[in-house]
TrEMBL record:
<dbReference type="GO" id="GO:0005829">
    <property type="term" value="C:cytosol"/>
</dbReference>
<dbReference type="InterPro" id="IPR006140">
    <property type="entry name" value="D-isomer_DH_NAD-bd"/>
</dbReference>
<dbReference type="InterPro" id="IPR050223">
    <property type="entry name" value="D-isomer_2-hydroxyacid_DH"/>
</dbReference>
<protein>
    <submittedName>
        <fullName>Glyoxylate reductase</fullName>
        <ecNumber>1.1.1.26</ecNumber>
    </submittedName>
</protein>
<dbReference type="Pfam" id="PF00389">
    <property type="entry name" value="2-Hacid_dh"/>
</dbReference>
<dbReference type="GO" id="GO:0047964">
    <property type="term" value="F:glyoxylate reductase (NADH) activity"/>
</dbReference>
<dbReference type="InterPro" id="IPR006139">
    <property type="entry name" value="D-isomer_2_OHA_DH_cat_dom"/>
</dbReference>
<dbReference type="Pfam" id="PF02826">
    <property type="entry name" value="2-Hacid_dh_C"/>
</dbReference>
<keyword id="KW-0560">Oxidoreductase</keyword>
<feature type="domain" description="D-isomer specific 2-hydroxyacid dehydrogenase catalytic">
    <location>
        <begin position="6"/>
        <end position="322"/>
    </location>
</feature>
<dbReference type="InterPro" id="IPR036291">
    <property type="entry name" value="NAD(P)-bd_dom_sf"/>
</dbReference>
<keyword id="KW-0520">NAD</keyword>
<dbReference type="InterPro" id="IPR029753">
    <property type="entry name" value="D-isomer_DH_CS"/>
</dbReference>
<comment type="similarity">
    <text>Belongs to the D-isomer specific 2-hydroxyacid dehydrogenase family.</text>
</comment>
<dbReference type="GO" id="GO:0051287">
    <property type="term" value="F:NAD binding"/>
</dbReference>
<dbReference type="GO" id="GO:0030267">
    <property type="term" value="F:glyoxylate reductase (NADPH) activity"/>
</dbReference>
<feature type="domain" description="D-isomer specific 2-hydroxyacid dehydrogenase NAD-binding">
    <location>
        <begin position="112"/>
        <end position="291"/>
    </location>
</feature>
Amino acid sequence: MSKPKVVVTRKWPAEVEEQLKALYDVQLNENDIQMTADELKEALRTADALLPTVTDPLTAEVLGIEGKRAKIIGNFGVGYNNIDINIAKKHGLVVTNTPEVLTDCTADIAMLLLLMSARRAAEGNRLVRDQQWTGWRPTHMLGQKVTGKTLGLIGFGRIAQAMARKAHYGFGMKILFCDPYPPAQQIIDDLQASRCETIEELLTEANFVSLHCPGGDATRHLINEKRLQLMRPSAHLINTARGDVVDSKALIKALKEGWIAGAGLDVFEGEPNIDPGFLNLDNVALLPHLGSATEETRVAMGNRVMENIAAFFAGLEPKDRVV
Ligand code: DGY
């Protein structure tokens, strides 16, 4: 029997690509150049499985092409707002993602950004590199203490809970969260966490606010000018979720005008094209979407996609099926 044909849209860790080669008739992307809409359509027409990632827009137009051969989309990433899920469902496509395996590393990056923002690490790094550091002095570059402060999490899924564990047990932080679907009471009790009924309440009380909700239309500009104005002038906003959850223009204004003390961002509206307004600000730490970027996690993500498509081709239900 011939092997299923699989198209991978970006370069994956070598050890996962080797396994794909052994199991499938696979088209890899050795140059690692983002595929065009036409190339994605062609892949859907010619392959049994398309393995895209979070930067491949699988729009209604792409998914709607005639004569599709593909039956499954194995997304490399936990977030799948790159895929028009309703249209995928309408066309009978199975879609899977890669939860769990990137939880800790993404929470680590959120914690890193929290610390960077509180302790002005990006600004300090720039000062040293620009050879502008004139020496230690008691009032130089004072930031804010993290230990014992209050962390507010908007969205309290796996990654937020992992961050809460690091913050609570590692830094003695008090945990607040706001989520319409709270986790089991045991998880809340273990973290001595308190639920806020509204985002507004959380924004007013937290010293650090970290975003952990999915991207997409429902959460676009969830953090807008009005909400940023509710935060404390000493507070910091951390975003490792999706860029469009925050209105960039409003955040730039908030950072410039001192409505909040700082921000740590791993994701951006329209990334990788970052609003230039961020670039000259000292009170923002900027990272290039590194949440899951460790060797271990990216291999695990690839393996997770492989498990999902293997189950599908064996006639079983893939464990990370989204639709
Ligand atoms: C995801 O998986 O959704 C991330 O944004 C990439 O790590």
